[in-house]
Amino acid sequence: MVSVRDVFGIDSAMRVPAFGVRDDHVPEIDPGYRFEPEVTLAILSGFVRNRRVLVQGLHGTGKSTHIEQVAARLNWPCLRVNLDGHIGRMDLVGRDTVVLRDGQQVTEFQEGIVPWALQRPIALVFDEYDAGRPDVMFVIQRVLERDGRFTLLDQNRVIQPHPFFRLFATANTVGLGNLTGMYHGTHLLNHAQIDRWNVVATLDYLPREAEIDIVLARVPELADAAGRELVGAMVAVAQLTREGFAAGDVSTLMSPRTVIAWAENCQIFRDPALAFRLSFLNKCEPGERPIVAEYFQRGFGTELEPCGDAAA
């Protein structure tokens, strides 16, 4: 058992089980990662009490990474599965395959993701949970119940979960579908299934100074006074895009992931304006680019020159 206060720097008396040895499924530790206290405690409740934890939030907030970094500090094996439209029932449950045994072709059942993970001390993370096909999602409904056993009908076998199996998920919505128009491909989820998630945490964008620190940790070449001022202006522009999105002025917002990409591209092109165009502006609707250019002007105190002038 490890102390949450010692390992995560959160004022809590909670103690969490941890493994003493790392294996290939344990994520690498990011020493610069910043933990949001409430979301971290929600995730830790999954590891301590075997709660089913769903982390919801806008893109780029670090939902999946948050779970991985908690697991990394606990030496807990972690497996991420992206529930895109190509994941089917056989991928989750398993299928019969033809293999060679002693020179003879025989049919053998190959376990899918769910039964494989259930039998191991592993944290299974369903990424983009709200993008899973509705007909497939019911496959995991029984597993969502704590200590829920999984039945392989084709094998007439019932799988008992490993005592240290844990289940998490991330989603851009809370099973309500594509309400904002940002997340095409997400689905309305059955309320009975959403109700099986014991803990639902919302991860928002970090405060300004914390976001600056994260960008500087990822791009250490900017970790001086001038670099911090530059990144501060970048984060200010990103926050303006988020405010503009909330107000309905623009349909595209800048995530921390995009800010990091912008900072990295600044190191390549040595021009914040050009890097901004290539990192974010060209992703925006043409009719909204003047508004986004105004955000740049407000953040940097200088006009964003048209592409043709920059190239000249």
UniProtKB/TrEMBL annotation:
SUPFAM superfamilies: P-loop containing nucleoside triphosphate hydrolases. Residues 1-26 form the Cobaltochelatase subunit CobS N-terminal domain. Residues 53-175 form the ATPase dynein-related AAA domain. InterPro entries: ATPase_dyneun-rel_AAA, CbbQ/NirQ/NorQ/GpvN, CobS_N_dom, P-loop_NTPase. One of its GO terms (molecular function) is ATP binding. It comes from the Bacteria. This is AAA domain-containing protein. It comes from Cupriavidus cauae.
